[in-house]
Amino acid sequence: MRGAGSVGADSGVGLDHTEAHRLRPGPLQAIGDSAVFALRRVRFGAQGNLTAWASYKVQAELRSGGTGATASSIAATDLYLALTHRLWTATIGQSKTPLSVEFIRSSTVLELPERSMAVDSLSPNRDVGVKLEWNTAGTLALQGGVFNGDGINRAANRDKRFLYVTRAVVRAAKGAYLGVSAAAKPDTTPGTPKRGSSGAASPCGASSSLGTARSPT
After folding, report:
1. By C-alpha distance, which of 34, 44, 36, 33 is closest to 7?
2. What are the tens digits of pLDDT across the range 83-129?
3. For a Cys-Cys bond, which of 24, 76, 83, 213 suits 175, CB 3.0-4.6 Å?
4. Residue 28 contacts residue 36 (beta carbons within 8 Å)
5. pTM for the structure as a whole
6. Helix, strand, coil percentages, rounded to 5, for the chain
7. Closest CA to 97 of 54, 53, 129, 70
8. Rounded distance, CA 9 to CA 41, Å?
9. CA distances from 148 to 62, 77, 94, 162, 181 (A)
10. In whole angstroms, what separates CA 84 from the centre of its chain?
11. What is the dihedral of CA 86, 206, 216, 46, to 10 degrees?
12. Which pLDDT band holds residue 46 (cuts at 50, 70, 90)?
């Protein structure tokens, strides 16, 4: 078992509430006669191996209520069990959807402190479901998953439609990887013609990526 945690803070300094208003929306904000120091990201969790072929990860994030009058809350980010057999890995629970390489990578290894707006706003985020990976440890990696499609921390599938995500990564050259991915979810718009009992499928995202000197996943 291994514990883990991360803390991120906005840059800036301040001494008292009389100067705090000059730093908004930085780390120090004046609320009444008090100055509040804001942390960008606070996460804590644990991960480890249950057996030689089963591992787990539990991670939560401390979220601010937005103002000093609103209490903070704790929300789960990762909560899954991973089962491994040779080149195969099955992940069950809440985890990252394998669409965007920028989202798959940890924020601690990104060149910029924030992910792009397109990835944060448009790309599928963490979700509850099952994903399967086949990885040859460098040459080729294939990933696919079926998720609820309702987003993070929503175990119930309200519209009874699933999100399908697939991703393929190949090593184009030494230290360089080329990946392509796609995601789709059946259309739930009223009046849309249906095919069989599953509904008319509509793509909800696609991406391609080129990476260097990093793991394909």
Report:
1. 44
2. 999 999 999 999 999 998 888 888 778 877 778 888 878 888 899 99
3. 213
4. yes
5. 0.72
6. 5, 50, 40
7. 129
8. 7
9. 24, 15, 10, 5, 18
10. 21
11. -70
12. very high
The single-letter code of the amino acid at 21 is: H
Is the separation of the CB atoms in 186 and 198 below 8 Å? yes
Between 29 and 94, where is the model more confident? Answer: 94
Where helices occur in the chain by DSSP H, the ranges are 17-20, 101-104, 117-121
CB-based contacts of 141, cutoff 8 Å, min separation 6: 133, 134, 135, 167, 168, 169, 170, 216, 217
Displacement of CA 207 from its chain's centroid (Å): 15
How much is the pLDDT for 136?
Answer: 86
What gap in Å lies between CA 96 and CA 57, rounded to an integer? 12
pLDDT for res 118: 81
User: Of the given ranges (4-18, 116-130, 178-192), which has the lowest mean pLDDT?
Assistant: 4-18
Three-state SS string over 136-191 comes to CCCCEEEEEEEECCCCCCCCCCCCCCCEEEEEEEEEEECCEEEEEEEEEEECCCCC
Lowest mean pLDDT among 17-26, 31-40, 137-146: 17-26
Ranges of each domain in the chain: 1-81, 86-217
